[in-house]
Amino acid sequence: MSIHIGAKPGEIADRVLMPGDPLRAKHIAETFLEGAVCYTQVRGMYGFIGTYKGKRVSVQGSGMGMPSMHIYASELMQEYGAKRIIRVGTCGGLRAELKLKDVVIASAASTDSNINKCRFGPISFAPSADFELLLGAYQTARERGMRATVGPIFTSDRFYSDDLPEKTKMLADYGILAVEMETCELYTLAAKHHIQALTLLTVSDNVVTDEITSPEERQTSFNDMVELALEIV
């Protein structure tokens, strides 16, 4: 039993979807999983287990930011034997060609966080996605007629930043597709523990065009992405 999740051994599947928002974890479980059971409510960070097309799948909230992802992903991997984790979330698009509700499949994640500097010192470790999951997500998205783009993203330590316009333009010039707050830590931990990890993101707003989705659009596009994640997890 871990400190922050608190589930008993065997209560969590080795295939896990990780939304940041615990209420989205609840929504995913109630909408998509059969026989969903809540295994944790510690600190309000919901976790559920159920089945999807006959396979055991868990949904665990991660919270916001790399430190929170570090706690929940570490415990899933170290204490509960997670073998395949897919983060499902939203992002801000950094390129004009990314349309609202598009899916971004994150191939790698840069960051301005000091977490990996503490780990690796002068080495700039470049965490990346599992290729099998990435390829499966891209092919499945194409088969479903979804607009999906594969490429690197930026995991930011700050949501509000004074230098955001300059920073996002520079990142876009270097091929970064979108910004979010958790993936770099998930990919780093997956590399350490030799498990498969992938991040799927729906574009909820675009920093370049100033477009933003409505709450209804966000929910619909999020559901489509969750189904994509469930098909490959």
TrEMBL record:
<feature type="binding site">
    <location>
        <position position="4"/>
    </location>
    <ligand>
        <name>a purine D-ribonucleoside</name>
    </ligand>
</feature>
<keyword id="KW-0328">Glycosyltransferase</keyword>
<protein>
    <recommendedName>
        <fullName>Purine nucleoside phosphorylase DeoD-type</fullName>
        <ecNumber>2.4.2.1</ecNumber>
    </recommendedName>
</protein>
<keyword id="KW-0808">Transferase</keyword>
<comment type="subunit">
    <text>Homohexamer; trimer of homodimers.</text>
</comment>
<feature type="binding site">
    <location>
        <position position="43"/>
    </location>
    <ligand>
        <name>phosphate</name>
    </ligand>
</feature>
<feature type="site" description="Important for catalytic activity">
    <location>
        <position position="218"/>
    </location>
</feature>
<dbReference type="GO" id="GO:0004850">
    <property type="term" value="F:uridine phosphorylase activity"/>
</dbReference>
<dbReference type="InterPro" id="IPR004402">
    <property type="entry name" value="DeoD-type"/>
</dbReference>
<feature type="binding site" description="in other chain">
    <location>
        <position position="24"/>
    </location>
    <ligand>
        <name>phosphate</name>
    </ligand>
</feature>
<dbReference type="GO" id="GO:0005829">
    <property type="term" value="C:cytosol"/>
</dbReference>
<dbReference type="GO" id="GO:0006152">
    <property type="term" value="P:purine nucleoside catabolic process"/>
</dbReference>
<dbReference type="GO" id="GO:0004731">
    <property type="term" value="F:purine-nucleoside phosphorylase activity"/>
</dbReference>
<dbReference type="Pfam" id="PF01048">
    <property type="entry name" value="PNP_UDP_1"/>
</dbReference>
<feature type="binding site" description="in other chain">
    <location>
        <begin position="204"/>
        <end position="205"/>
    </location>
    <ligand>
        <name>a purine D-ribonucleoside</name>
    </ligand>
</feature>
<feature type="binding site" description="in other chain">
    <location>
        <begin position="87"/>
        <end position="90"/>
    </location>
    <ligand>
        <name>phosphate</name>
    </ligand>
</feature>
<feature type="binding site" description="in other chain">
    <location>
        <position position="20"/>
    </location>
    <ligand>
        <name>phosphate</name>
    </ligand>
</feature>
<feature type="active site" description="Proton donor">
    <location>
        <position position="205"/>
    </location>
</feature>
<dbReference type="InterPro" id="IPR000845">
    <property type="entry name" value="Nucleoside_phosphorylase_d"/>
</dbReference>
<feature type="domain" description="Nucleoside phosphorylase">
    <location>
        <begin position="15"/>
        <end position="231"/>
    </location>
</feature>
<dbReference type="InterPro" id="IPR035994">
    <property type="entry name" value="Nucleoside_phosphorylase_sf"/>
</dbReference>
<comment type="function">
    <text>Catalyzes the reversible phosphorolytic breakdown of the N-glycosidic bond in the beta-(deoxy)ribonucleoside molecules, with the formation of the corresponding free purine bases and pentose-1-phosphate.</text>
</comment>
<feature type="binding site" description="in other chain">
    <location>
        <begin position="180"/>
        <end position="182"/>
    </location>
    <ligand>
        <name>a purine D-ribonucleoside</name>
    </ligand>
</feature>
<comment type="similarity">
    <text>Belongs to the PNP/UDP phosphorylase family.</text>
</comment>
